[in-house]
Design brief:
With 156 residues, the protein is mainly β. It contains two helices and 13 strands; from the N terminus they run H-H-E-E-E-E-E-E-E-E-E-E-E-E-E. 13% of the residues lie in helices and 47% in strands.
Length: 156
């Protein structure tokens, strides 16, 4: 009996994060909050619709806002609690779209691989000082360590 109890304790200790997440939900950031600016040919775009969408654990969410007079918009951080074991890779599919002159511009597409806030912007990022998207710029691929984003946005 003592041997069985020790084996059980060893197994629980070895997989404590997964065992704990099954018992107690873990809070994860699905999409970090930030304020950004949308421009076209260098000029701020007022009253433009901005939509972000994200998918996690078979649930898809869409949120919309509108830019102010200077082209700024804000999204709050989106959080969830999960009981999923973290043996598998955490991943959230993320997209941001801007609607201007009857055209949809995809300005952000990424797979968020870190559970912490601002993890989609690269390892070690704790907050954003600035975030801007120029609609006339080409979409480029950025390696973010970990992860990859397709975007025409820039941030610090």
């Amino acid at each position: 009996m003592v041997r069985f109890s020790l084996c059980l304790l060893f197994i629980l200790f070895a997989v404590q994060d997964d065992a704990m997440s099954m018992l107690f939900p873990k809070k994860v950031c699905l999409f970090s909050g930030f304020t950004g600016q949308i421009t076209f040919e260098g000029k701020p775009l007022p009253n433009v619709r901005v939509k972000r969408s994200y998918s996690f654990e078979n649930k898809h969410t869409e949120e919309e806002t509108t830019t102010d007079d200077q082209g700024y918009f804000t999204f709050e951080s989106a959080w969830a609690k999960t009981r999923a074991p973290f043996i598998a890779q955490f991943v959230v599919e993320q997209h941001i779209y801007v609607y201007y002159q009857e055209t949809e511009y995809q300005v952000w597409s990424a797979g968020k691989l870190l559970e912490n806030e601002f993890g989609e912007f690269g390892e070690g990022v704790e907050r954003l000082k600035s975030f801007s998207c120029e609609l006339t710029e080409e979409i480029r691929s950025l390696r973010l360590r970990p992860g990859l984003a397709l975007t025409n946005c820039r941030w610090e």
